[in-house]
Amino acid sequence: MVEISVVIPAYNAIDYMDEALDSIINQSFKDLEIICVDDGSTDNTLERLEYYASKDSRIQVYTQENQGPGGATNTGLSKAKGKYIYFMDSDDILDLNALEILHNLIEEKNVDFVIFKSINYDEDTGEYIEDSYFTMPELQECAGDSVFNWRDIGDTIFSINVAPWSKLYNHDFIKRTGAKFLPNLIYHDNLFFWDMLFNSDRVYFHNEFLYKMRVHSCSATHSNNEKSIQTIKTNNLVTQKFIDYGYFEDYKVMLYNRKIYIIIFRYGLINEEFKELFFIEMKKDFEKIIPHEKYDDFYSNLEPAPKRFFDNVIESDNRREFDLRNEIFDLKDDNRKLKNEVKSLKRKVKRLNADKRKLNKKVKKSNKKVKDLSELNKSISSSRSWKLTKPCRAFMNFFRKL
């Protein structure tokens, strides 16, 4: 049996695939099978994969009609024979010693999967950028160097990066769960992650950067086209997953607010030309909540920002009105903040004026003392006794100088 199966879905990846494949075939850990699935590419991706396969016998190439990265990953997973599974994106870069490190850890710790950190690589600027979603500092603080399961870390489960390429999995564990990726959705890995997490008993977090995620205009993760609207469906499927496992009540407040926050985030990012369509689907989704038996529970547990966003969607007839409501609220909020700043400044001025009055009183007292001492000195200097003792003082001063 091969030790690690590396599954790589690829779609129109010709510009970046060489670097991704090179980072796998040149791993210090050699006991690999590399399963590449061309997901109906329209460029030369398939030809390039076949070229690599002709040079390295560990590479297997499969092709299928387009099903999205989730469908292609499922195909690759169905072909895998390794003891462990690693999922690799076709436009990213894995550190050359990563699989050796991860293999040693998953064997040593005897865990269902190992999680590790990644860093963003901006190909336009050549910069490496840390993102807390991919570095997972909350998980590091919570779990430390210990083996844990999801019950041990509370709400920190929502701080774990769901991407499969940030983990090495035990293959038998995946088989036992029966977990699959969502086909034809760009957020295909969400449900797979929750199936993995909720079924796991032993997990380990390795606090090291082993993966470079390329940021570019064609990246599915950073795509802001109409596919971003799929976040609405994915959110609902994630909530249903919590219900199916019986954990909804434990996490409902986080789930309610997380749903709205994610939609706010995606709406803010989506390209201008798709905002109207996003609004329509968003409003349909929100309107379904109102007659639901959980509506009162949902609404009462929303934080102020998600509640205001939800209300603005419901009360708006179109995207323009919705944006205007948000803009008015933001202006009112800015005005409120400015008024508070003015009040704060007025309080500071009041305190400074009070301090000034105190200082003026001290200066006045000090000036009075100086005046009194000056008058006393003048009185002494003009007195008859001071004049009579002047020769004596001069004589004493003369001897002091000797």
Task: Describe this entry's structure for a reader.
With 402 residues, the protein is α/β, with parallel strands linked by helices. The protein is 55% helix and 14% strand. It is built from 16 helices and nine strands. It has helices at residues 17-25, 45-55, 68-79, 98-109, 132-135, 137-143, 171-177, 190-199, 230-245, 248-269, 275-289, 295-300, 304-315, 319-381, 384-388, 390-401; strands at 4-10, 32-39, 59-64, 84-87, 93-94, 113-122, 127-129, 167-170, 203-215. Strands 1, 2, 3, 4, 5, 6, 7, 8 and 9 form a nine-stranded mixed beta sheet that branches. A hairpin with a 4-residue loop joins strand 6 (113-122) and strand 7. Helix 9 (230-245) packs antiparallel against helix 10 (248-269), helix 10 (248-269) crosses helix 13 (304-315) and helix 13 packs across helix 14 (319-381). The radius of gyration is 35 Å and the shape is elongated.
Notable traits:
single chain, 402 residues, alpha/beta, 16 helices
Any chance you could write out the topology, listing elements then pairs?
Elements (H helix, E strand, L loop, with lengths): L3 E7 L6 H9 L6 E8 L5 H11 L3 E6 L3 H12 L4 E4 L5 E2 L3 H12 L3 E10 L4 E3 L2 H4 L1 H7 L23 E4 H7 L12 H10 L3 E13 L14 H16 L2 H22 L5 H15 L5 H6 L3 H12 L3 H63 L2 H5 L1 H12 L1
Parallel strand pairs: 1-2, 1-4, 2-3, 6-9
Antiparallel strand pairs: 4-8, 5-9, 6-7, 6-8
Q: Give the proportion of residues in helices.
A: 55-70%
**Low-confidence runs:** none
Tell me the radius of gyration: 35 Å
- Characterize the overall form: elongated
Mean pLDDT: 90
**How many beta strands in the DSSP annotation?**
9
Q: Could you say which structural class the secondary elements and strand pairing correspond to?
A: alpha/beta
First-last Cα distance: 108 Å
* Main β sheet profile: 9 strands, mixed
Strand content: 5-15%
How many individual helices? 16
The arrangement of helices and strands along the chain is EHEHEHEEHEEHHEHHEHHHHHHHH
